[in-house]
Design goal:
Helix content: 55-70%
Oligomer: single chain
Radius of gyration: 16 Å
Structural class: mainly alpha
Largest sheet: 3 strands, antiparallel
Strand content: 5-15%
Number of helices: 8
C-alpha cells in the first residue's frame, strides 16, 4: 500500500515543481475542481490539514490566479472556492497524469482486480465519511 501510494504520487510530483506547487496545492485544486463552490470549512475537513496551512495554500493559489474566493450564497461569512480557467487547466493536466497512471495499472491488473481494489478502497473509508465522498460529485459541473 505504501509503495503503491508513493509510486502514484511520484507520477504527478514531477508536474508540481514546474508550477511551484506542492501536494497540498494539488489536493485543494482537485477537490475544488470536483465541487465548485466548496467552502473553506468543507475543504479543511476533506484535506485534514490545519486552517493555517489551508490559508497559505488558498492565498498562494489566489495570488497565481488559479483560484477565486467569494462570499457564500447561503452564508455570506463563508468563503466559496472556485477555480479559474488556468486553475482548471492545471488541475486537469495533472489529473491526466494520475488518470493515465491508474489506467495502465488497471489494464495490467484486469477488471476483476480493479473491482476488488475499489471494494477494498471503499471499505477502508470510515462509514461516516462515505457520504461526504458521495456528495463531491453531485454539484460538479
Amino acid at each position: 500500500l505504501f509503495f503503491a501510494h508513493g509510486a502514484l504520487w511520484r507520477a504527478i510530483d514531477a508536474r508540481l515543481p514546474e508550477n511551484d506547487l506542492g501536494r497540498a496545492h494539488y489536493r485543494a485544486l482537485y477537490f475544488i475542481a470536483r465541487q465548485p463552490g466548496l467552502t473553506i470549512t468543507d475543504l479543511l475537513t476533506l484535506l485534514g490539514i490545519t486552517k493555517q496551512s489551508l490559508g497559505r495554500v488558498v492565498k498562494e493559489l489566489e495570488a497565481r490566479e488559479m483560484l477565486v474566493t467569494r462570499p457564500g450564497n447561503r452564508d455570506r461569512r463563508q468563503k466559496e472556492l472556485r477555480l479559474t480557467d488556468s486553475g482548471r487547466a492545471l488541475e486537469a493536466a495533472i489529473f491526466g497524469v494520475l488518470r493515465d497512471t491508474m489506467s495502465r495499472a488497471y489494464t495490467h491488473a484486469g477488471q476483476q482486480a480493479v473491482t476488488g481494489f475499489w471494494q477494498v478502497s471503499e471499505a477502508l473509508v470510515p462509514p461516516r465519511e462515505r457520504r461526504r465522498i458521495a456528495e463531491l460529485g453531485k454539484d460538479a459541473g
